[in-house]
Amino acid sequence: MLKPILLVEDNPRDLELALIALERSRLSNEVICVRDGEEALAYLRRTGEYAARHEGNPAVVLLDLKLPKLDGLQVLEAIRADDQLKSIPIVMLTSSEEEPDLEEAYRLGVNAYVVKPVEFSDFVKAISGLGIFWAILNEPPAGSVRPAGRLPEPC
After folding, report:
1. 65 within 8 A of 37, measured Cβ to Cβ
2. Which of 116, 6, 19, 106 is nearest to 63 (CA)?
3. Does this model's pTM top 0.85?
4. Looking at the domain assignment, is residue 142 inside a domain?
5. Pick from 123, 150, 109: which is nearest to 11 by CA?
6. What's 52's domain CATH number?
């Protein structure tokens, strides 16, 4: 069974564009969408409304930097501090080209930092490439594939 992609994005326009891009890449992975940092951690930790979801981590987390409640850097730091979550690939997907943001993301353990392209066609190419690499080509750690069964609701 394919592992889902967790998309953490609060901007409705960017969320829609990312979903279109992932769909165009023809990935079969389910995409789970959450809108803020707290919801992302609740999903990953299986707490709150996500307490009943199946065990297992997503293939990749596409994480926006500027989020409500907890920003992307705080979410990244919490994931890397958690033994159950720290091996999940995290891609920071952001509009910030600020060097301090980039440096802090890598200091905290991000796997990739991608600045969202302005042009739609470039955005689609970037997201498609990320999805294909992390969901298909990347080899996850042993035992990290989610068992078969009922899936969480998609976006």
Report:
1. no
2. 6
3. no
4. no
5. 123
6. 3.40.50.2300
